[in-house]
Design goal:
single chain; 320 residues; alpha/beta; Spore Coat Polysaccharide Biosynthesis Protein SpsA, Chain A; 8-stranded mixed β-sheet; 11 helices; 8 strands; 51% helix; 15% strand
Length: 320
C-alpha cells in the first residue's frame, strides 16, 4: 500500500449538468488507484466552487455527505478559473504529497493520472498533461489556440505547447510556488518558472460530457493577455524597436521632402498626408494601449488583494 496522498483538484463554475456524470467517474478512479496500492486511502477529491449561480455547490455538498473522499470549498464570489485552481492548490498543499488539477467536464483523460503518478515516482515533481491533438476543437479555437502557444514561445515565455491545466504537481513544488505573490495568475506559464524536474505525458482530450463551456472568446482573449503581460516584456521592447524604425523612416522621408521641394517636384495633395497621419496615430494608440496593459498590471499588483476567499466548506473538509 502506497503512502502517497493524492488530492484531485477540480474547479467548478455553473456545472450542475455535468457534475452528476463526472463525480462518480472521479470517485471510481480514486478508489481504483487506492485499491491497487498506487495512492493512499487518505486521498481526496477537492472541488472548488468558483461562485456558481446554479446548484453546483449543493451538488458538491451532497456528494461530500455521501462519500468521505469528496470534499469541497466555495469561494465568496466568482474569481475566475485560474484563481479557483490556485485556491484548491493552496488548500491542498499541506494535506497531500501530490495534486492533480483537471476540469470537471470529463474532457481530461482520467486514465492518464496513472502515468502521471508513475512519472512522479520516477522523480518528476511536475508532470504536464499535453494533448495529442485538437480534433475536438472547432477550426477557429484550434487556430487561435495554436497561434497563442507559438506566440508565447516566440515572446520568450516558458510554456508547454498544447498544455492547459491538467497537471500533477508535488507538495514540495507547491510550497515553493506559494511564495509567488502575483495577483494576475497564468498558472500554465508560472509553474515552469518554479523549476524542479518535470516531464510530459500525452493524452487524447475528449468532448465535454454535458453542459457547455464557460470559456467565451472574451474570456479566452483576457486569459491570453494575462499570459502575455504576466510572463514577457517583449511587447514593450517591440514598441521601442518600432519607434526607432519609424523614426529612421521618418528622417529619410523628411530629407526626401526637402529635396523634392527644392527641385520643384512637389504637388499639393491631402491623400498621402491623411494616410500618414492615420498610420502614425494608429501606431501611437496601439503603443499607448500596450503600455497601459502593463501599467494596469502594476496597479493591480500594488494593491496586493487576496487571490481567493473561502466562504464555505463541506463537513468532510472541516473534519479533516
Amino acid at each position: 500500500m502506497s503512502d502517497t496522498v493524492l488530492y484531485l483538484i477540480v474547479p467548478c463554475y455553473n456545472e450542475e449538468k455535468v457534475l452528476p456524470i463526472t463525480v462518480p467517474l472521479f470517485m471510481q478512479k480514486i478508489e481504483e488507484l487506492a485499491e491497487k496500492g498506487i495512492i493512499s486511502g487518505k486521498s481526496r477529491i477537492l472541488f472548488v466552487n468558483d461562485g456558481s449561480k446554479d446548484k453546483t455547490w449543493d451538488l458538491i455538498c451532497g456528494f461530500a455527505a455521501k462519500n468521505a473522499r469528496v470534499i469541497g470549498i466555495s469561494q465568496s464570489r466568482n474569481r475566475g478559473h485560474q484563481n479557483a485552481l490556485y485556491a484548491g492548490l493552496m488548500e491542498a498543499k499541506d494535506h497531500c504529497d501530490i495534486t492533480v488539477t483537471m476540469d470537471c467536464d470529463g474532457q481530461d483523460d482520467l486514465n492518464a493520472i496513472d502515468r502521471m503518478i508513475e512519472a512522479y515516482e520516477n522523480g518528476a515533481e511536475i508532470v504536464y498533461g499535453v494533448r495529442n491533438s485538437r480534433k475536438t476543437d472547432g477550426f477557429l479555437k484550434r487556430f487561435t489556440a495554436q497561434g497563442f502557444y507559438r506566440m508565447m514561445n516566440g515572446l520568450g515565455a516558458e510554456i508547454v505547447y498544447n498544455h492547459a491545466d491538467f497537471r500533477l504537481v508535488s507538495a514540495r513544488v507547491l510550497q515553493e510556488f506559494s511564495a509567488y505573490r502575483e495577483v494576475n495568475l497564468f498558472l500554465r506559464g508560472m509553474f515552469p518558472l518554479v523549476g524542479f524536474k518535470s516531464t510530459c505525458i500525452y493524452y487524447e482530450r475528449k468532448k465535454r460530457l454535458a453542459g457547455k463551456t464557460h470559456y467565451s472568446p472574451k474570456k479566452m482573449l483576457a486569459l491570453a493577455l494575462d499570459g502575455i503581460t504576466s510572463l514577457s516584456i517583449k511587447p514593450l521592447r517591440f514598441i521601442t524597436v518600432l519607434g526607432i524604425l519609424i523614426s529612421v523612416i521618418s528622417f529619410f522621408l523628411i530629407v526626401w521632402a526637402v529635396v523634392v521641394h527644392f527641385l520643384g517636384m512637389t504637388e499639393r495633395g491631402w491623400a498621402s498626408v491623411t494616410a500618414l497621419i492615420c498610420f502614425f496615430s494608429g501606431i501611437q494608440l496601439l503603443s499607448v494601449g500596450v503600455v497601459g496593459e502593463y501599467i494596469g498590471k502594476i496597479y493591480l499588483e500594488s494593491k496586493a488583494r487576496p487571490k481567493y476567499i473561502i466562504s464555505e466548506r463541506t463537513d468532510s473538509e472541516k473534519e479533516s
